[in-house]
Amino acid sequence: MSSHLVNWLTPTKERLTVVTGEKGMFVADTLTADLTFYANGQVHESWDDIAQFGGVTEGDVTRFAIAKPEPLRTEHENFRDAVLGKEADIVTMEQGARVVEVCEAMIESAATGRFVELRN
Asked: Cα–Cα distance between 67 and 75 in angstroms, integer?
């Protein structure tokens, strides 16, 4: 399942990607560079009448320690490396053109209500 909300009206920013699985869910906050895993709980109800209404309970929460380099510095270092011909983790022109192609196909599909096939 996927949900996308764009809101320019509120005074707060929120950039979350949530991936849900059978053992819990990951929440990636791309604004703060945080990654958290919320495990499903293992609580078992002893009262049978309540157990039928049960769902998933909250279990352990794990916040992963990941590197948080300064974004502008990283962007400049990658650009420098690309100019110098070194290995750089940047988007190529081909990758950028492919993203534009996919976006145009999505717009066309939404406007026409039909499937738009892309080349490989």
From this structure: 15
| Tokens describing residue 10 | 């509120």
Read off the pLDDT of residues 11-63 as tens digits, 9 standing for 90 and up. Answer: 888 888 899 998 999 999 988 889 999 999 876 666 666 656 666 778 999 99
Structure tokens at 112: 């026409």
Q: For residues 30 and 15, give the distance between their C-alpha atoms in angstroms, rounded to a whole number.
A: 6
For residue 58, the cross-strand partners are 40
Q: Which residue has the tokens 């399942």?
A: 1
Q: Residue ranges of the alpha helices (H) in 1-116?
A: 48-51, 71-83, 93-112
Q: How far apart are the first and last CA of the chain?
A: 25
